[in-house]
Structure formats: structure tokens, C-alpha cells
Write a structure and sequence with these properties.
It is built from two helices and no strands. It is mainly α. This is Twin-arginine translocase TatA/TatE family subunit.
């Protein structure tokens, strides 16, 4: 989805964000976005680990093909 943005696209997005939110809110928005992204990655990692753990428990003692 975001593979073709490029540097000019990022600059345009940052300029629009600066105009809309102002320079005082931008650091707060960036911090909130980073925290949200970090929490999402941790949750996704935990879900994947639980699924892998359940898969190992279900297939314990079974011979592979």
C-alpha cells in the first residue's frame, strides 16, 4: 500500500500535517503514533507466539510426514 510513496510523498504528508495540526501538536502526534505502532507489533507478536505454542502442543508426539 505504501510502497510507492517516496520521499516527495512523505514531505507532502508532513507538510499537510504541519498545516493541519500545527508545530506544537506534531511531536505529541508522532509520539502517540509510535506508541500505537509499538503496541500493535507487540500484540501481533504475542498472538503469533501463542498460535505457534498451541500448534506445537497439538502436534506433540506426532510423526511428521
Amino acid at each position: 500500500m505504501f510502497n510507492n510513496i517516496g520521499v516527495s510523498g512523505l514531505i507532502l504528508i508532513l507538510a499537510i500535517a504541519l498545516i493541519v495540526f500545527g508545530p506544537s501538536k506534531l511531536p505529541q502526534l508522532g509520539r502517540a503514533f509510535g506508541d500505537t505502532l509499538r503496541e500493535f507489533r507487540n500484540s501481533t507478536r504475542n498472538i503469533m507466539d501463542e498460535g505457534e505454542r498451541e500448534h506445537l502442543i497439538e502436534n506433540e508426539g506426532k510423526k511428521p510426514f
